[in-house]
């Protein structure tokens, strides 16, 4: 080999050695490196929040949630848009539409979590913060929501069951009015735990109140040992009271949720107590939390749900609470 090629070979070897030394010094940096995307700047102007629930038209319970969300919007300068649909597929489409319109935050009730999962996860991927309310607490974090606001349905049901037990009742009928609503199943399961006695469940359809009353009437008439009826909605409670009276049953009624009719029924002794989950807070607090998150990166709850109930309302407290029911905040 000529001296010229030997010198060239030594130069190449020197370069390779230098490259190896450089790689050894820098170590892992020699491998491809992924860089996290820069955080998007906080949007300017008023925050827009889309509140999308599974409430049905004319439901007094969800009207109070809406009142809370809209009041928070006025107090905090947040643009709040409330929509609802009791059909899970239609509710998912409402969420998809809000994401497509680049809403600044989502507040979603999850009566049927699996049906809403793709839409909620798509919102999270799009960088839209989500807070769940009312139903679906156990799926909230898994779907990427910041937090959940509502009462724990199992705890609330257990408190209702304990109350009936303390009142000396022996057999409880728990009335479910929305098929597939996980929260209602949890309420009845909790009632079984708290009651520690015989508990029977009955499925009715809230959209057919006449049939719901007929089914409740049939249940208490067929089984005279039923001495307690727990409904999971204030409108169904009125039907239960009518059903019990129509057949002279000894059963006494209690219910979840308040409205003016339930307040009057508690005062009259037709309803023993109401499990109030203070749904005004379920509308108000998420809007406040999303504003704090947008403006100050605050996350409320420390990874745990923010509970709004239960608060049991009976004759001893109904006068005070009733005034707030009249103005649409309880």
Automatic annotation (TrEMBL):
Question: What are the subcellular locations of this protein?
Answer: Cell envelope
What InterPro entries does UniProt report for this protein, alphabetically?
Bact_Solute-Bind_Prot2, Peripla_BP_I, SBP_2_dom
Q: Could you name the domain of life of the organism this protein comes from? A: Bacteria
On whether Signal is a keyword of this UniProt record, the answer is yes
Periplasmic binding protein domain mapped to chain residues: 56-292
Signal among the record's keywords?
Answer: yes
Tell me any Pfam family this protein matches: Peripla_BP_4
- Which UniProt keywords are listed? Signal
Span of the secretion signal? 1-23
Record's family? Belongs to the bacterial solute-binding protein 2 family.
Cross-referenced PANTHER family, in alphabetical order?
ABC TRANSPORTER PERIPLASMIC-BINDING PROTEIN YPHF (PTHR30036:SF7), D-XYLOSE-BINDING PERIPLASMIC PROTEIN (PTHR30036)
Q: What is this protein called?
A: Sugar ABC transporter substrate-binding protein
């Amino acid at each position: 080999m000529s001296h010229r090629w030997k010198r060239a070979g030594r130069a190449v070897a020197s370069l390779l050695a230098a490259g190896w030394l450089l790689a050894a010094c820098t170590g892992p940096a020699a491998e491809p490196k992924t860089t996290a995307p820069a955080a998007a700047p906080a949007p300017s102007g008023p925050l827009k929040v889309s509140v999308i629930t599974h409430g049905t038209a004319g439901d007094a319970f969800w009207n109070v949630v809406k009142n809370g969300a809209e009041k928070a919007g006025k107090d905090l300068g947040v643009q709040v848009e409330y929509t609802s649909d009791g059909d899970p597929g239609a509710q998912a489409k409402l969420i998809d539409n809000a994401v497509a319109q680049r809403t600044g935050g989502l507040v979603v009730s999850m009566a049927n979590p699996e049906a809403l999962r793709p839409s909620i996860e798509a919102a999270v991927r799009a960088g839209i913060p989500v807070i769940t309310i009312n139903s679906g607490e156990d799926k909230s974090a898994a779907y990427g929501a910041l937090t959940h606001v509502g009462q724990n349905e199992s705890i609330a049901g257990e408190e209702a069951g304990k109350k009936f037990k303390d009142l000396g009742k022996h057999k409880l009928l728990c009335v479910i009015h929305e098929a597939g609503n996980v929260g209602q199943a949890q309420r009845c399961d909790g009632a079984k735990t708290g009651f520690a006695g015989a508990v029977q469940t009955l499925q009715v359809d809230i959209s057919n109140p006449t049939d719901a009353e007929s089914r409740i009437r049939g249940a208490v008439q067929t089984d005279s040992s039923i001495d307690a009826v727990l409904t999971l909605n204030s409108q169904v409670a009125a039907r239960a009271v009518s059903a019990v009276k129509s057949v002279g049953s000894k059963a006494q009624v209690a219910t979840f949720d308040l409205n003016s009719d339930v307040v009057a029924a508690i005062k009259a002794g037709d309803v023993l107590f109401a499990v109030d989950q203070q749904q005004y807070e379920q509308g108000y607090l998420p809007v406040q939390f999303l504003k704090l998150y947008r403006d100050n990166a605050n996350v409320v709850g420390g990874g745990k749900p923010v509970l709004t109930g239960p608060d049991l309302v009976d004759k001893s407290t109904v006068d005070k609470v009733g005034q707030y029911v009249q103005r649409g905040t309880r």
